[in-house]
């Protein structure tokens, strides 16, 4: 997803965060370092309330547990006021456009909008109409992009493996409809992971030309062999398409990560999943809860990454004198 405008300001810092695609390695590493400083046990935690006086509006038009809760916690822990508008119960349900909703809320002095939407292009339109001091942050856009998920996945891999430059990362499941896979691919390619594998049945494989540089596998057993990182994805039937893909027990038999299959990966491979999991479908419960799983570490890192993004945006705005 290439944006027709820059997400960066004149100082090379983020003004918006809509996609990781096109960002530089230095910027991503700065965000990961900053997220490390936002961990509860870090001696470098941000000074109290770096977002004091800010209001961050969280507008989620699709279900969410992890992203929404962690953005809200990040805002509050940084001293901002968190305005949490359930878009399913907002005036959007009465026909108001998202543009009018944003302009309405901007009139109430919002500093940043965190938006999740099923429609591609909403984030780009929001950024185009935002006032100069207002930032737009993606909480997940259609099948296209989930940049803070990509960052928290990269942070988790860096913490567990200490490096990117010789890793084999296997991403398996419904790649075609996955914004998580797209943002993980962007992040890992920028950070220098040399081998990214995408593993899916034909119905769930993205179109040719997507995921440039990734190796494609139509067998989970083959794709897992020798992997250092295994990222499993849920089948997203709610997005339509892929109807011919196997279901339930059939899916688990052919495409589910079991303890036996995981033994094909490298010793010490980590198991990741963005959540929500469908246990017994794409991942067996004993693997999800097993010693190689870092799934709940990913969740914890979500708060730190979102704190890092918000403090970066606030510092960038201060540096612009706004
Ligand atoms: N990983 C993720 O986006 O989870 P939620 O849908 O619960 O936010």
Summarize the structure.
The chain is an alpha/beta fold and 322 residues long.
Description of the molecule:
The chain is α/β, with parallel strands linked by helices. It folds into two domains: 25-146 and 300-319, 3-Layer(aba) Sandwich (Rossmann fold), CATH 3.40.50.1370; 147-296, Rossmann fold (3-Layer(aba) Sandwich). Helix content is 36%, strand content 14%. It is built from eleven helices and nine strands. The protein has helices at 25-37, 66-77, 98-106, 122-129, 147-161, 179-191, 220-224, 248-255, 259-262, 285-288, 295-319, and strands at residues 55-60, 81-86, 112-117, 135-141, 168-172, 195-199, 215-217, 229-232, 270-272. The strands form two sheets. Strands 7-6-5-8-9 form a five-stranded parallel sheet. Strand 1 (55-60), helix 2 and strand 2 (81-86) form a beta-alpha-beta unit. Helix 1 packs across helix 5. The longest helix is centred in the C-terminal third of the chain and has 25 residues, at 295-319. Bound molecules: phosphoric acid mono(formamide)ester. The site of phosphoric acid mono(formamide)ester (CP) has 10 residues, from helix 2. Residues 64-68, 140, 149, 274-276 line the site of phosphoric acid mono(formamide)ester.
Would you spell out the secondary-structure blueprint of this structure?
Blueprint: H1 25-37, E1 55-60, H2 66-77, E2 81-86, H3 98-106, E3 112-117, H4 122-129, E4 135-141, H5 147-161, E5 168-172, H6 179-191, E6 195-199, E7 215-217, H7 220-224, E8 229-232, H8 248-255, H9 259-262, E9 270-272, H10 285-288, H11 295-319
Parallel strand pairs: 1-2, 1-3, 3-4, 5-6, 5-8, 6-7, 8-9
